[in-house]
Amino acid sequence: MQVSPPIDRLSGLLERFRVRAQLHHSGVLCGLSHFDACEGYGYLHVLRRGWLRVSHPGARNMPRSMRFDEPTVLLYPRPFTHRFHNPPAEGSDFTCARLVFDGGARNPLARALPPLIALPLARVPGLHAALELLFAETDRVRCGQRLLADRLFEVVVLQLLRWLLDHPQEAGVHPGLITGLSDPRLARVLVAMHDAPGEPWTLERMAERAGMSRTAFANTFREVIGQTPADYLSDWRIALAQSRLREGHSIKILAEELGYANPSALSRAFTVRVGMSPRNWLAKTPA
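and the corresponding structure tokens:
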């Protein structure tokens, strides 16, 4: 029996849609702390010592209040209002970072993740070494501390994403990109499309890459990811087009890169997916 070689399920995504971390706080938090969605950031909080009650005012489909009594990591991949309630006098010890997902709400990874992932540190193998380095940097000021802490936070995010790909059900991930990358057969197709979006990805070619019949592949893809292979490919191409347009690339160049017959074909597909032409979308998008 031939065993497929392992594949890198994240690098192609993160090379095109970076996740950047910015050290926000290190030390004790006492009483009430606000983290408002209007700031436009996601957050990664590490509860190192003490207890925490976190509330989500006005949130739907989320617990209004949660309590944590052991070292825990809390990942908010998208802007989401949350409040920390800590002991008013002695407080609890945290190391926190703001997160910026390239493309904002259009970032495929940010869209695929639940609004909150909260995990005891002991649940994520491999996280201990990265956190030890991070804590060593944030516990005292040294040259280059902020830059190094930012990079180490990004390592922690990557470790969490690795864990999520192997445990999507435990994290409450809904059908989408993460669950697709968790399926070895579908992952081969998704990684190939991410790496070469301009290739002619017919249903036959995708099914062959997955090692499945056309019907089995189409049905499995729709069940696990929540949309058809053609719709996923179109969404991926348009997300890349949006990212590249913001970088200043022309529609003509993007049409060639993304597998469209001409700029008009890309513009039509863009308008169907986004609801406005590339020119109008770019004019309305903040720099």
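(Above: one complete record from the training split.) The chain has a mean pLDDT of 91.
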